[in-house]
Amino acid sequence: MNNDCSNTNPEASHLPGQQYSPSFCAQRLKVLADLNRFTILRLLLDGPKHVWELNEELSLEQSLLSHHLKILRQEGLVQSQRDGKAVLYCLAPGVRINSGKGINLECCVLSFDC
Q1: CATH of the domain spanning 22-111, picked from 1.10.10.10, 1.20.1560.10, 3.40.1190.20, 1.20.1340.10
Q2: Predicted confidence band at 9 (pLDDT cuts at 50, 70, 90)?
Q3: Whole-structure pTM value
């Protein structure tokens, strides 16, 4: 389990000028096509959250929430950190855009201004 939720460097994974393949972009967007995963990222824009806090908003079976968090971790969109018996999740470095109201998918940026 990563111990990186304290890493706040917003540019950690961004490589200026890097080109991403259409298949990379399609995969990133496919991951967010699931409403639960999309909602998890929106919730994490407000800061790190424990699994139980995420589940208060989503009301999912624990195994289903774990599945969605695993997919987001594998895609490099979130990171986890053990916090005693609980697990704390946060956006991975470079995912939050500077305004704090959007996420950087590396191939495009999703903005939540509305």
Answers
A1: 1.10.10.10
A2: very low
A3: 0.81
